[in-house]
Amino acid sequence: MLSRLEAANRYIRENKHRVTNRPHYHFAAEIGWINDPNGFIHYNGEYHLFYQYNPYSTVWRDIHWGHAATKDFIRWDYKPVALANDRWYDANGCFSGSAVEKDGMLYLMYTGHVTGEDGRVIQRQCLAVSEDGIHFEKHPANPVIGERELPDRYMPCDFRDPKVWREADGHYYCVLAVRNEQRRGEIVMFRSEDLVHWRFHSSVYRTEEAQNLLLECPDFFHLDGKDVLIFSVMPCDPEYADQVENHVAYAVGRLDFGTGRFEPEARGVLDRGPSFYAPQTTAGPGGERLLIGWMQSWRQGGLPDGFEFNGMMTIPRRLRVEGAKLLQQPFLPNGEYFAPVHSGEAELAPGRAPVLLTSGSGRILLELDRAEAEELKGNVLEFRLQEKDGRAIRVEVDAAAGQIAVRNDYEDGEPGRLDVSTDGGLALELFVDLYSLELFVNGGEQVFSLTSYAPKGFVSKVSAARPVRLRRLESFAFRPPGRDTSRPS
Q1: Integer Cα distance of 377 and 123 in angstroms
Q2: According to DSSP H, which parts of 300-436 are helical?
Q3: Which of 131, 198, 321, 483 is 20 to 30 A (C-alpha) from 100?
Q4: pLDDT digits over 133-154, tens only?
Q5: Each residue's pLDDT tens digit, 328-358
Q6: 211 in helix, strand or coil?
Q7: What contacts 464, CB < 8 A, 6 or more positions away?
Q8: pTM to 2 decimals?
Q9: Cα–Cα distance, 385 to 321 (Å, whole number)
């Protein structure tokens, strides 16, 4: 009889050919459902990405850990499924976690999810270890953090998503999401000398009872002389769903390892779009801090016919701290995979809309200096992406109002809006793929992510309400290795 791990890998081998419509350069699974990125790490010369995974269906359930590796975030090598829910402590799911290298071996730390016959949920933290970075053995000491290690004032039904790292003092730390006795969100920290024996260290960050928040998927790191804490926010109970919208927040400040408290200097929202959640970061080989998030709308309806996969990841984003603000910039190779389509000036007027892309996926860049942004006031630029039969995904830039609106004509819903400053000019970078848009504003001061599986066109254009000359407008069609994307595929 096959083990659950063997059964998952055999199912993928025998059925992955059914998926023929994955996005061009956003990561998606070979087949099935994915959500949170897990275990994101640079190990043995490659970036490894693990992810919450149900290979058997396009809906969430029966959660495994999928696994892929890459050197450039375009070409991915799918690895065997890393973890299956096959132990008493993870019988109902191997939930989110992270990875760390120790003595040349790769350790995964994840949440084992169990729902008892009485409906009671318990979540515990577990380890798996690999010598080759591909095949993992669950640690005999599992679970390494459970009810005994968790203080009584916390609820083990919501105790998950360990992000583990090795600090300069030689100790290992992990931050975890937990629900406290007021049923509100809190981030706690544990400490270990060997990854196996853990002790509760402190409460790092908590929400107020009146905020009605639950926190998930915490991430902590040092960057540019600051400490950064990232976490995903959701309603603490279904009754607050109309008051709290799922989103990802960050805090920049200082973590005092003596007291174990995080003291924020500033807070912000990481992505203003409806399709971004549960990101995770890692350090690159040059010390850069990279982030990948899960792209999925909480309002997503059913998939169109013929879809055998559901969910994808953002492109990698390089993070930096400027002042107390966390900035995000795209981190993808450009020239090798993106072929120039338009470069330089563009004359726009009503009825005159230069074509920027004809292949359904690519990159568009607009840069205005301060004087050009001032000239644009009283005018409106409109990028019409993936246009078909008069419908498109529209990015409308209104410099006078200091606002960018994103509208999706292919699906119902309210437009997304970004308040932007044009005092120092305006820079927009749009990454368009078959089912997604990522918009970066002013060097990553703001980001907007959108997913849409509705059938769409391939042509992307830009127009203006009144005549205007854009001095720097560039577009690049994505060119998959070995494929010509100059025409619709």
Answers
A1: 54
A2: 370-376
A3: 321
A4: 999 999 999 999 999 999 999 9
A5: 999 998 778 999 999 988 889 888 889 999 9
A6: helix
A7: 348, 349, 350, 379, 380, 381, 382
A8: 0.96
A9: 31
Q: Which residues contact 8 (CB under 8 A, 6 or more apart)?
A: 55, 56, 64, 81, 84
**Considering Cα of 384, then 408, then 281, then 221, what sign does the dihedral take?**
positive
Task: Given the residues 36, 227, 398, 433, select the one marked as catalytic.
Answer: 36
Rounded to a whole number of angstroms, the CA Rg of the chain reads 23
Angle at 147 between CA 146 and CA 153, to 5 degrees: 130
* Beta carbons of 313 and 37 less than 8 angstroms apart: yes
Measured between alpha carbons, how far is 469 from 297 in angstroms, rounded to an integer? Answer: 36
CA pair distance 141, 159, nearest whole angstrom: 19
Helix and strand numbers (H, E) in the chain are: 2, 36
Instruction: Give the number of residues written for the chain.
Output: 489
Is 36 known to be catalytic?
Answer: yes
Cα-Cα-Cα-Cα dihedral sign, residues 12, 14, 16, 19:
negative
Pull the structure tokens for residue 72: 């450039």
Tokens at 152, concatenated: 């009584």
**What amino acid is encoded at 87 in this protein?**
R
Angstrom distance (rounded) from CA 459 to CA 299:
26
460: left (phi over 0), alpha (psi -120 to 50) or beta: beta
Q: Which domains does the chain have, with CATH numbers?
A: 4-330 (2.115.10.20), 338-478 (2.60.120.560)
SS3 9: helix
Instruction: Give the pLDDT mean for 78-84.
Output: 98
